Amino acid sequence: MKAKAVTRLARAKINLTLHVTGQREDGYHLLDSLVAFAAVGDVVHAKPATDLSLRVDGPLAKGVPTDERNLVLQAAALFDCPRGAEIHLTKHLPNAAGLGGGSADAAATLLALGELWDEPLPDDLLKLGADVPVCIAPLALRMRGVGEELSIIPPLPDLWAVLVNPGVPLETPPVFKALQQKENPPMGQVPDCTNAAEFAEWCAAQRNDLQAPAIALAPVIKDVLEALEPSLLARMSGSGASCFGLCASAQDAEKLAAKIRAAHPQWWIAATTLS
Question: What predicted TM-score, i.e. pTM, was given to this entire model?
Fold first, then answer.
């Protein structure tokens, strides 16, 4: 039976680590990354309609396209037999922020329309971007290759985090272009940690190889990391400019978020869990 309407949360994707291990001849970079997902995100709502349409609203909807440039409509077009649907995207995540917002929106759209139309998911999700496959099943995974190699890791301990974006959009291609060393050591094996402090200690020994080139392009990232320093670990997510601070408890996360919010009211800040 086809669904009457479907709503999906497009959870923010956090690269807890991001090792750039090489570059293919076609230009695509090879990655080794530990990806987790926050409890905050955009919302995709789809319901039956004669035609396919997209409406975007929400606190961070400004500048988000509603035509075929949006990955939501590109995701809909990927089905073998696309049909009508009224898609409503509510934006809570900043754009070009290193949180996988567009990819998460596309993945949530695929899942919503698959249920709405009673259709299997399309095969080649990489057409929509390297982050879309990992966003289909929003749970902590190790992501390698260009995003197509996904593997299960030991369950993460309870993790809390503060996410911060300084309001500076940072497109991914210039960050990769600014990365001078493209062949770096891979990530270590993810251990079975029992608490947030133990996990943060392991994570601190890993890297985000894009952090330094991103700071060179957007120096405000350094300010964000400094603001997050009271956490167990402060690091940039993805290609930036968003950063995260791992915390030992919900209370610690809320306290740190409130402190940063008071000092930088113009920044986007969220205290959340990661899983």
Answer: 0.96
